[in-house]
């Protein structure tokens, strides 16, 4: 049986939900093999109408929030999630139709594991949105936009670039793992493994290459880009491991982070308390415990009224 027949047969079994675990693994492998892109293109054109219907159903499911707690130990990626969006790798858009976008979003206090159509994985932090351009096979470029924060584990695909954009940065990625946060007027990129080139359109300078253990911090208001060496996941993206770590950090910055992640608004009766620097280690998923730790550390009370928490 040739590849064309095999892909067609596996697609039919996928639709009928009769794939065995071994066949599912084979199907994923065929979809991710660069040598089969042209073959997938032909098969998917024939299958366009059915694939489009499946996509609509999947996107309706994807709009439902997925709530979960982060374990204190390092999170492991689940292969089962890829089935939910896997069929998008089959789509080939008619030439007179603009490509659609896949959007993944989290609410306050929520994280979500996303398996992209190229089998790359993203752990999306709270209050974040990730958008994927579905014409990546045709354009031979994987393009995403991120608002918020995500931890990426990028699968290397020969000849197809992986690019993440935000309001402040453009990141060109090889097979690598990194954490990227872009909120308000700043961006933070930490590279755990591999290599990335980052560009700051506002600065109009040459791309900057990062090596593992480096972090890049950009303040758009000050137009200031800083590179920090000898960083770590624990220091730069502890949320991935289920904790929020703050080292010699002003309370004002800590509360800004709480606002980003949990949607809480804070108001201090004494503004000077916001300048107090703290070393804190907080469990990400337990807001009640975070509140108690803050109260004990600051010797204050956090009183919640409607949408605002008053520091007294």
UniProtKB/TrEMBL annotation:
<protein>
    <submittedName>
        <fullName>FecR domain-containing protein</fullName>
    </submittedName>
</protein>
<feature type="domain" description="FecR protein">
    <location>
        <begin position="104"/>
        <end position="197"/>
    </location>
</feature>
<keyword id="KW-0812">Transmembrane</keyword>
<keyword id="KW-1133">Transmembrane helix</keyword>
<dbReference type="Pfam" id="PF04773">
    <property type="entry name" value="FecR"/>
</dbReference>
<dbReference type="InterPro" id="IPR012373">
    <property type="entry name" value="Ferrdict_sens_TM"/>
</dbReference>
<keyword id="KW-0472">Membrane</keyword>
<dbReference type="InterPro" id="IPR006860">
    <property type="entry name" value="FecR"/>
</dbReference>
<feature type="transmembrane region" description="Helical">
    <location>
        <begin position="72"/>
        <end position="93"/>
    </location>
</feature>
């Amino acid at each position: 049986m040739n590849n064309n027949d095999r892909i067609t047969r596996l697609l039919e079994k996928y639709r009928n939900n009769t794939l065995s675990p071994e066949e599912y693994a084979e199907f994923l492998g065929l979809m991710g093999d660069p040598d089969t892109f042209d073959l997938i293109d032909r098969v998917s054109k024939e299958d366009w109408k059915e694939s489009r219907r499946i996509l609509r159903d999947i996107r309706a499911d994807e709009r439902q929030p997925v709530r979960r707690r982060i374990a204190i130990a390092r999170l492991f990626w689940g292969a089962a999630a890829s089935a939910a969006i896997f069929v998008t790798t089959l789509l080939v858009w008619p030439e007179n139709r603009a490509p659609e976008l896949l959007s993944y979003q989290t609410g306050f206090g929520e994280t979500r594991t996303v398996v992209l159509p190229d089998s790359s994985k993203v752990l999306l932090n709270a209050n974040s949105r990730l958008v994927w351009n579905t014409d990546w096979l045709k354009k031979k470029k994987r393009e995403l936009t991120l608002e918020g924060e995500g931890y990426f584990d990028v699968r290397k695909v020969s000849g197809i670039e992986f690019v993440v954009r935000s309001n402040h940065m453009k990141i060109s990625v090889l097979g690598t793992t990194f954490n990227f946060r872009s909120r308000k007027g700043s961006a933070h990129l930490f590279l755990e493994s591999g290599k990335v080139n980052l560009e700051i359109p506002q600065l109009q300078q040459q791309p900057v290459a990062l090596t593992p253990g480096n972090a890049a911090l950009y303040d758009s208001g000050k137009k200031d880009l800083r590179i920090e060496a000898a960083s770590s996941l624990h220091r730069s993206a502890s949320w991935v491991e289920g904790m929020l770590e703050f080292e010699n950090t002003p309370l004002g910055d800590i509360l800004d982070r709480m606002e980003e992640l949990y949607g809480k608004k804070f108001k201090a009766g004494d503004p000077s308390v916001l300048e107090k620097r703290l070393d804190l280690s907080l469990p990400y998923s337990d807001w009640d415990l975070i509140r108690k730790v803050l109260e004990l550390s600051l010797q204050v009370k956090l009183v919640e009224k409607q949408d605002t928490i008053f520091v007294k």
